[in-house]
C-alpha cells in the first residue's frame, strides 16, 4: 500500500485535479472510487463534507491524516512532493494563478449546469455564462501551449477536467462553445494530449459520462445520440427508406433533442435525413 490514497469518484472533476497533480509529480498512490449515491460509512466518517476528493496520508508514527477540498490537497502535494513546481516562484504571479483557479471553479459549475440542464432556459443561460468565461480566458492567454506558457501549472490542472467534458460530446457541441476562441481551443488540445490529464481518469470515463447524461435526462444528452440518429437514418435508407410517419418522427425527435438548448445546430441535419428517406422512398 502506498503512503497516499486518493478517495475519488470516476467522474469527479475535483478529484481529477488531485490525480493530475499526483501524476505530474510522479507520486505512487492508490485510488479508491466510491459510490456517491450510497456513500460508505467509513467514507462519511473521514470526510467532514461528505465530498470527494479526500487524500488519505499514511503516517508511520501517527494516525492517518485525511485531507479534504481539492485545492488544499493540490497545494499540500505541491509543498511536499518533488517534480516540477506547479506554481510560479513569484508571489504576484502565484496569487494571480490562484485567482484563475477560483475562476475555473465557477466556469466548471456553469459547464456542469449546462450539461445537466433539464430545461431550455437553464441550458441557454449556462451555455452563455460558460462562453463568456471562455471569452475572458481567450483575452488572458498568451502564446501557450499552457496557461502560463511552456510550463504546466496548477491552472492547467484545474481547467483540464472542464475541457474534458467537451471531448466526450459530439464536436458540434464543442464547436458552439469554442468557436472563434483560437487560444482557448489550442490550450484545450494541449491539455487533452498531456499524459497526466489522460491518466487522471479511467478508460471508461467517456462511456460513464454519457451514461450519466442519459440517466439525468439532460437536454444536451441528445448530442451524444447524434451518431445513433445517423445510424437510424442510414438504416432507414438502406432498408428501402420507407418514409412513414413513424420513421420520420424518430429522426425528427432525435434531432429535436439536439436543437433544444443548442441553437447552433441547424435544421440542415433533418433536411439531410429527410432527403435521404425521400430519395430512397422515391427509388422504392
Ligand atoms: N469544493 C470541493 C468540491 C468537491 C465536490 O463537489 N465533489 C463532489 C463530486 S465531484 C461530491 O463529492 N459530491 C457529493 C455530495 O455533494 O454529496 C472540492 O474542491 O474538493
Automatic annotation (TrEMBL):
Keywords, alphabetical? Transferase
The record ties this protein, via PROSITE patterns, to: GST_CTER, GST_NTER
Does the keyword section mention Transferase? yes
Going by the entry's taxonomy, the superkingdom of the source organism is recorded as: Bacteria
Enzyme type, top EC level: transferase
What sequence ranges are listed for the domain GST N-terminal? Answer: 2-85
Q: Tell me its EC number(s), please.
A: 2.5.1.18
**Where's the GST C-terminal domain?**
90-213
Q: Which reaction does it catalyse?
A: RX + glutathione = an S-substituted glutathione + a halide anion + H(+)
Extract the InterPro entries matched here.
Answer: Glutathione-S-Trfase_C-like, Glutathione-S-Trfase_C_sf, Glutathione_S-Trfase, Glutathione_S-Trfase_N, GST_Omega/HSP26, Omega/Tau-like, Thioredoxin-like_sf
Any matching Pfam family: GST_C_2
What is the protein's name according to its record?
A: glutathione transferase
> Organism source for this protein?
Stenotrophomonas indicatrix
Amino acid at each position: 500500500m502506498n503512503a497516499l490514497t486518493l478517495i475519488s469518484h470516476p467522474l469527479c472533476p475535483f478529484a481529477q485535479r488531485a490525480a493530475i497533480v499526483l501524476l505530474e509529480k510522479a507520486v505512487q498512490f492508490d485510488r479508491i472510487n466510491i459510490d456517491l449515491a450510497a456513500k460508505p460509512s467509513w467514507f462519511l466518517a473521514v470526510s467532514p463534507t461528505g465530498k470527494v476528493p479526500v487524500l488519505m496520508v499514511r503516517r508511520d508514527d501517527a494516525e492517518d491524516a485525511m485531507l479534504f477540498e481539492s485545492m488544499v490537497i493540490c497545494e499540500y502535494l505541491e509543498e511536499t512532493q518533488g517534480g516540477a513546481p506547479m506554481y510560479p516562484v513569484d508571489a504576484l504571479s502565484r496569487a494571480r494563478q490562484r485567482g484563475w483557479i477560483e475562476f475555473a471553479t465557477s466556469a466548471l459549475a456553469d459547464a456542469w449546469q449546462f450539461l445537466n440542464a433539464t430545461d431550455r432556459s437553464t441550458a441557454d443561460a449556462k451555455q452563455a455564462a460558460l462562453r463568456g468565461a471562455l471569452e475572458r480566458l481567450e483575452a488572458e492567454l498568451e502564446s501557450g501551449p499552457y496557461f502560463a506558457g511552456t510550463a504546466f501549472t496548477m491552472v492547467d490542472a484545474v481547467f483540464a477536467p472542464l475541457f474534458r467534458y467537451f471531448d466526450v460530446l459530439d464536436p458540434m457541441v464543442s464547436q458552439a462553445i469554442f468557436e472563434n476562441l483560437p487560444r482557448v481551443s489550442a490550450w484545450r488540445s494541449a491539455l487533452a494530449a498531456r499524459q497526466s490529464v489522460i491518466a487522471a481518469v479511467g478508460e471508461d470515463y467517456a462511456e460513464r459520462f454519457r451514461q450519466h447524461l442519459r440517466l439525468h435526462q439532460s437536454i444536451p444528452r441528445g448530442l451524444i445520440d447524434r451518431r445513433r440518429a445517423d445510424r437510424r437514418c442510414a438504416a432507414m435508407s438502406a432498408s428501402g427508406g420507407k418514409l412513414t410517419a413513424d420513421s420520420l418522427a424518430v429522426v425528427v425527435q432525435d434531432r429535436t433533442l439536439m436543437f433544444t438548448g443548442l441553437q447552433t445546430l441547424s435544421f440542415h441535419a433533418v433536411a439531410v435525413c429527410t432527403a435521404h428517406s425521400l430519395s430512397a422512398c422515391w427509388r422504392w
